[in-house]
Design a protein that fits this description.
It contains four helices and five strands, in the order H-H-E-H-E-E-E-H-E. Helices cover 32% and strands 20% of the residues. The radius of gyration is 15 Å and the shape is flat. Strand 3 and strand 4 form a beta hairpin. It has 114 residues and is an alpha+beta fold.
Length: 114
């Protein structure tokens, strides 16, 4: 949806519809499902969005992990600067413009089990 960049692109709120906000998590889940087939055992799958919408972020990841027990969340802390470690919650990163002085962004790192 791009809601994390709405301060830079205010036209987003004019173009996004409630229907699109409902459909996007479904599409994003399908994309994750398809991409997961190409991750080798021990490999990493990163899911990232430029939104702050829980439905498109944490909920998509949790649904994916429920359907794919061969993946688990991987600790993102070693890859995050100290100044943004406070953005890590439940093994996922949610950047909020007003808190972190960056665009709204979400990142999760999942590892395929051996």
């Amino acid at each position: 949806s791009g809601l994390g960049t709405i301060h830079k692109k205010p036209d987003i709120k004019l173009n996004i519809t409630p229907e699109a906000l409902e459909e996007l998590p479904i599409l994003q889940g399908k994309i994750l499902d398809a991409c997961s087939e190409y991750v080798k055992p021990g490999g990493v799958l990163v899911y990232s969005t430029c939104t702050i919408n829980l439905e498109e972020n944490q909920n998509v990841v949790m649904d994916f992990l429920e359907k794919h027990p061969e993946f688990k969340l991987d600790n993102p802390a070693p890859y995050v600067p100290d100044s943004l470690k406070s953005a890590i919650k439940d093994g996922m990163i949610q950047l909020i413009p007003s808190l972190h002085q960056v665009d709204g962004f979400f990142i999760s790192r999942m590892r395929r089990l051996s």
